[in-house]
Amino acid sequence: MHGSLVGDADSSITKQLSSHKLYGATPIQKIECVNHLLRNFCNKLKDLSSPSSHLIIPLNLRKKLESNILRFRISIKKAAAFRIQMTVPLAEKIPLFQNDIKNFVAHIFGEYSNCEEYFCKGTIDQEENIMPELIRCGFIDDIMACL
User: Fold this and answer.
1) How far is Cα 134 from Cα 54, in angstroms, rounded to an integer?
2) For position 33, what pLDDT does the model report?
3) Which entry of 21, 24, 88, 110 is 20 to 30 Å from 94 by CA?
4) Are 4 and 62 in the same domain?
């Protein structure tokens, strides 16, 4: 008998299975699926970029977010792959990965000052740094809350 469930952070199935005791005394262990987590993250970003989110955010910032949702997903996967291959203890990898996630948000919106070398080759011609605008209107807080 199996006691594991692969799901996502928004799943309510674990609670239902545990309360109905379908597996008797066997405890249900929930395993977070990376694909589910990334899908939920991207869906939250998509909701933020939607005019129906009821946030008063300039249209250009919403469009910039919407056009870069796939880049967010790719960036997380790239950072995870890089950190997994490092030959340091897991306890050191985790804060590095967390820092990568914070930095890639800035990177996607044109701020490259804190990027790691493995991830970024520097500024891109004709790309505008919109981080100050995101900070000024508070939209960056909404984006970071999706993480």
Assistant:
1) 16
2) 72
3) 110
4) no
